[in-house]
């Protein structure tokens, strides 16, 4: 087969020459003095690019034969070199090609009497050690536990007792969550004085904060070199120390260190954009971490950002990245920066990344009267009331489609599978995104809207942070103030401010979202001008914080409901024809929008609770009659009374990636059991906040647990990292009340959890040893 592909490759190369397309061939065994033909290939990418620059052909292909290509500096493709011409950089058909930012090493290891190995190494600055193709762990405390926030954190990471052990901590790093768990912050240790560290950094988050008191760890400190897989490099001694894991023979192992923060840059200028570049079927790996690079504030969102990635596009038009793989990168994978038109990222596989997968972020100069930090606001007398953008330095009409993204944010936590800010008319379609510390898809402001977010499958989201969603947005635009009462006055006097930035309606449709630690869809702080329909929300429901002109219709919110927070009078919001399984969870409402009606509830009690808000006059309740809920098909069966609200079925088999290659690699979300307050609910076991629970069943269990009646929820199992364990609850306890109300079903407990999510606290009472005892659970918002 490989020989056949090689013959086909040679035939295609010959045919392309006849069609006026020049093909330049590169192989790791080539010669940079050759002419770059299939029979005399070049050796390096840089030489191939120089040959392409000097070519006069209008269409040039650089084809890479199988192997790893190590770059000594980023490959820069410039508009000045390719004006009016097309360039394709691709792997040869059927060939496995890696472009790497690492430096391969030849080392002589010696084992020390302390169990670790050492070698002399004179290398450029690096912060990733790769052994046999796998990144190893920089010496750290606490040790890498393989899961959880930062793979392990400790309150005593910066204790005086621990710092006292460190002789020369300078050059070490401190990593911590934001105190509100709204992202992360990182610091470089500069020294210590009397067992107190000095350090610099903390600039990576746009919401100033102290370090989280618990969720922190330190690394790159020699005294913490104590576990298999850990390494430490003493630059002053040019000495690398390493604890190889079991099974690694350092005499035969391949060793590399990551030395470049980026691999390829596509750069045009404001006057001459770079056009018609294609990068195809290449694996990109091994870049340095970028968390200590200069960061840029992004328009009052929680984000500051490093404007770079393994691939950087700036001032481009009609450039395409397809069929590629991005892995073991220290920072962002693809960054589409400032002016870009018609850029496409498709059919690609993103996994095990230090930061985000795809960022599309415009220049802050494109926004009129910009406010950069959360608490800032431009006074009215100084505000520009002109609608829309100030210039064209932002991504527009770009597409991110059919990409698989998982295990991102391995280093940084304020990340997303797809991050959008200061952009217009983007399409984010058919992506599968999971195992992320924050949102799968995030929109950082309302400037300028018009996006289509459709057919995505996002789950296992907000795993290491809080108060966020699988899909998250902010709308801290010109009308927005952090003081809600002042903002109400402002928009009443100047309603024209509302859509100055959010010019075009963003559509969120036909997605499947699941967030177990936040909301499935979270429109936060002023998010405005959205149309949300035909979405299947598996866990966290829909949150609409203060904002304007949002329509949410024909969505399915399993085991949850609408969370309306601090809505405005005359908001223009409409919530109609949705299938809901809980009453609403309102917080601080002045009004209930333009129309909240024709929704469907599971019981007359839930409907009555909604109607107490003077909403849902025409809403209905009853059984849902889904076609095949256990298998994820939540279309309504013929004859379902839920059709009475005007609900329309939508496809349940078109979420996420569609290419066969990516579908075979992709995981699938956990389909929830329906938590309805009925007799069958009492017989089921459920997962809740890291515990396995079931409702009390009959007189036998009443007697066994010493209960006064047959009411309560048994804690069958509790994970060690569950907030229940942290609060002191034990296996075998029986939950009796939550928020002071007797628990009559498992559904009641989930409803109480949702109601208290905004505070992150839930008071409960449990029955233990014939006594009812109070506890307070602390969980992620």
Question: What is the overall shape?
Answer: globular
Largest sheet: 14 strands, parallel
DSSP strand tally? 68
Strand content: 25-35%
Helix content: 10-25%
Sequence of strands across the biggest β-sheet: 1-2-5-23-28-31-35-39-43-46-49-52-55-57
Unreliable stretches: none
Q: Which value, in Å, is the CA radius of gyration?
A: 28 Å
Compute the average pLDDT: 94
Structural class: mainly beta
Distance between the termini: 54 Å
SS field, number of helical segments:
10
TL;DR?
The chain is built from 10 helices and 68 strands.
Describe this structure in words.
The protein has 781 residues and is mainly beta. It has ten helices and 68 strands. A 14-stranded parallel beta sheet has the order 1-2-5-23-28-31-35-39-43-46-49-52-55-57. Strands 4, 21, 22, 27, 30, 33, 34, 37, 41, 45, 48, 51 and 54 form a 13-stranded parallel beta sheet that branches. The radius of gyration is 28 Å and the shape is globular. The model has no long low-confidence stretch (mean pLDDT 94).
